[in-house]
Amino acid sequence: MFKPMASVFTNHQIAGHYRAIERAQKCVVPFHFEIQGQEYPKPKPERNWLRRLSGKYAMVELTPTKVVLWSPEGRNLGEMPLSAVRRIQIGAIRCHVTEGLDPRHAFRATIFVLTDSGNYYFANSDMEVLPAICKFAHEHQVPVEDPLRLIPLLKVGWRVAAVTLHETYAQLVAHTGYPADKV
Fold first, then answer.
1. Measured between alpha carbons, how far is residue 4 from residues 1, 87, 116 in Å?
2. Sign of the C-alpha dihedral computed for residues 46, 154, 20 and 96 taken in this order
3. In this structure, are residues 77 and 17 in contact, taking their beta carbons and an 8 Å threshold?
4. pTM above the 0.70 mark?
């Protein structure tokens, strides 16, 4: 099992996507995912006027042949053949620990893409991306690690799984390299 270093979880909310590929090799970087045409999180009407002007979010696109990173402006930041991916590790990090907060909003999905040339660390606000990544990886013979055993949890739905994850997160992350506290 791949154990991420603690430094991966620091400085993960740096704004912008300048040098995004370099940053994604050093720390967890927030990206949207597009898996065979389905976007995670699902696009909503944008209320932020600045984001409306600047365009979409940065995106990781998974296709049957390659992985492509796109800037918010639609520039290709880099790509690699899907065959270069040794395995994908899925997980979750706690973002908010405030008592009384709806547990569905307290976590971010983590997707670590492990290759021979380096590792890439991504976060996504939609936990439903994890089953989609597992399905995609299985269809394309890419091994998936699930050290927190999230996929069985997510089969009951994120509303129920979030409560269970919130209550058992510290035990689940023990000995995995994931931080027990919020990042």
1. 10, 14, 15
2. positive
3. yes
4. yes
Look at the alpha carbons of 44, 46, 47, 48 in this order and tell me if their dihedral is positive or negative: positive
Lookup result for tokens 């129920």: 160
C-alpha distances in angstroms, 181 versus 24, 33, 96, 119? 21, 25, 9, 23
Question: What is the tens place of the pLDDT at every residue in 116-139?
Answer: 888 999 999 899 999 999 999 999
Give tens-digit pLDDT for 52-90: 555 567 889 999 999 998 887 788 888 899 999 999 999
| Range list of β-strands (E), the chain | 29-30, 32-35, 38-40, 59-62, 66-70, 76-81, 85-94, 107-115, 118-124, 144-145
pLDDT for 53 equals 57
> How far apart (Å, rounded) are the C-alpha atoms in residues 67 and 81?
6
